[in-house]
Amino acid sequence: MKAFFKSLNLARGIILLSLLGTAVLLWTGLQHASRLSELKRNYSTDVVKLAPQLAQLARKHSQLSDNLKGENLQGEAEIQSYIYKVGTMDRVEVGNLVLNPALPDPFTKGIVDKKVNIRPDNRERSFARTTIANFLYTLEQQSRRVKVTMLKIENADKRVKPQEIPKDMWTFEAEVTSRQRSEP
Q1: For residues 119 and 95, what is the distance between their CA atoms, to the nearest angstrom?
Q2: Angle at Cα 104 formed by Cα 96 and Cα 140, nearest 5°?
Q3: pLDDT per position as a tens digit, 47-89
Q4: In sequence order, which ranges of 71-165 are alpha helices (DSSP H)?
Q5: pLDDT tens digits, one per residue of 85-103
Q6: Main-chain phi, psi angles of 153, to 5 degrees
Q7: CB 132 within 8 A of CB 172
């Protein structure tokens, strides 16, 4: 062995390092080849199962994100501003409202029902039934949290006789409920 290293010159050193490098490259190449064949096997079996699941989850994510974007009532304290905002929308236009929030009603542990009574600021102000219906429908349609739980509607003309057909002008009072998580 001493004779080998004694007669070692630059060319023989490069050849020796090349042989060692080749052995190391052969070893890592075989490892990566076995890993590659394992990945190819997994690809051919698992992708067939996972692709439909991934597509389904992507559709569900898109649906949920669209619902969140469409949700106008983002926070629990915003219910009154939400009702005012809906009251001024096109084809609703009920004008100024008086909102009387009731005390939160605990539904179950960690969940409360927040109720708000709604009426026009002028009790004598009358609306067409379509305006009232559009207002209440829009309250529920724009937010999944808000539901109309009570509606009191009366004819605006109190002097109508039973045999007469009244004008389509009404006064209303409503109650909406928003079920929310209770604040800790």
Answers
A1: 10
A2: 50
A3: 888 888 888 999 988 887 776 665 554 444 578 888 888 888 8
A4: 79-87, 129-142
A5: 888 888 778 888 888 888 7
A6: -125, 130
A7: yes
